[in-house]
Structures are given as structure tokens and as C-alpha cells.
Amino acid sequence: MKLKTGSLVALAATLVSAPALAAPAANLGVSISAPSGVNVYSAATYTFTVGNTGNRNASNVVLTIQLPETNTSPQVYVMGVVNSLSAGCTRTGTVVTCNLGTINKNTSKSSTVNITLPYSTDPIVFDASASTSTHEENFANNDASHTAALGLYSVAVSAPENATNRHCTGTNLSSFYECELFPSSISSFDSILETDGSVTLIGADPGLGGDWTLVGPDYLHIEYYDGVDLAGTLDARGVSADCFEGPMIFPGSSYMAMYEVCLQ
Prior knowledge:
Layout: H1 5-17, E1 28-33, E2 43-52, E3 58-66, E4 81-85, E5 89-92, E6 95-103, E7 107-116, E8 125-131, E9 143-147, E10 161-170, H2 176-180, E11 187-193, E12 198-201, E13 208-216, E14 219-226, E15 229-238, E16 243-249, E17 256-263
Antiparallel strand pairs: 1-2, 2-7, 3-6, 3-8, 4-7, 5-6, 8-9, 10-11, 10-17, 11-12, 12-13, 13-14, 14-15, 15-16, 16-17
């Protein structure tokens, strides 16, 4: 059958105006989810999901998770205790690598990290990224970040209260957990949080003492004095039913200390 000239022109116009099909490509996206209502020093499971919204299956997908890091130097550690990882995931230092294999188009795969996080004055951040050996054109959603939201504890202080104080000194520390990584760095002393708001340091030289106040149910503020001179200021938060943790700042010094104050 022969087509008339007009039909040929119409067919050519249709072919020219037809939309071009997108080239086959994977499109990976990463998301991070965490349970709510988790307090400091409580185990929690964080879920890292890699989805493929492309029009091509993604092969050899690798998920890389950067765990929160300590401010210790020269060695850096995970800011917390890693309890377990999903099958197919391994940890080297502060980095978790998960081999996810193939993620078909319009499907996803998830990996989990169960970790116990401490109290920190700096944000505790997870970073994750995904890669594939398959062609991708959009890399904008291959990375994700999540800042842990951790609850604190109310601590009842019924003065006078005996307290055990543990601390280590350094620069730029953000968590007493960093002290516990190096037990030999920890010093301790006993004190009494007196009814009148003063602090008695057991066995200390005369003139050494301080004042304390409970700013909130989970917030202990202490100012230490050497005579009339301010020696240090502690702002500590409730990390259990009877313990506070926080930084001690020394006026005019580049050094600081992370403290644990536990009621006896």
C-alpha cells in the first residue's frame, strides 16, 4: 500500500514532535530516620535507606555512613558505643560501609546502626552517602545528614547532697565520654552541695569552694572560687537519675574540662 504525500508529511510531523525518551540511568537517594524519645546513654537504632527512583536498576550499590566523631586528638573515635550493624555492613574506625548489591528501579534497601550516644555540647551528626557502578545523572540526593535529638534526665537535688566529681582536662572537649576513653586522664574529688547554695570541697585547701544552683530540673550550674577569684564555671546537664555532665570553663585559659557530677 502506498501512502499519499499528505500522509507522509503528517507522519513525519508526528515523529518529530514525539518526546524523546530519557536515557536509562539510576537515581539514588539517601534518607536517615531515628526513633523519637531517646535519651542520652540509651541504645537506639538509626535506619539508613537508599532508594532508586531512576529508570534503570542500580548495580553494586555501596552505602557509606560516617558515624559521629569525638574531638580527641590525634586519634578520633566514634562518639558513642556501636552495639550492632545490619548484615552486610562493616565498620572501620568511624566509618560504616554497607554493600547493598543491586537496587532495582523504584525500590529501596535499608541498613541499620544500633548505637548508644552520650551527652555532648556539640551536635552529634550522622552523614551518609550512596554510590553505584551504574550510570547516574543526578547526584543531588546521594547524600544525607542527621543530627541526633537526645533527651536529658531530671535530677532531684535535696540539699545537702554529697557528690562525687570526676573530670579530665583538655581543649575543645564536648563530652565526658571523651574522658572515659582515657581512664588514666580522669581525676576525682568529693563535694557537698549545701542547703544555702554553697559548695564544700572535701579535703580542699581553705578558700576553695563554690556556689551551686539548679537552673532547671536537668541543669546544674556551679561556680568555683579560689578565695574571691572565680576559678571555673560548670554548666552540666542531667544524664541519668542522679548524674550531671558538662563543661567546666576556666577564665582566661585555653584549657577546659569535662565534668561528671553524681549525687551519692
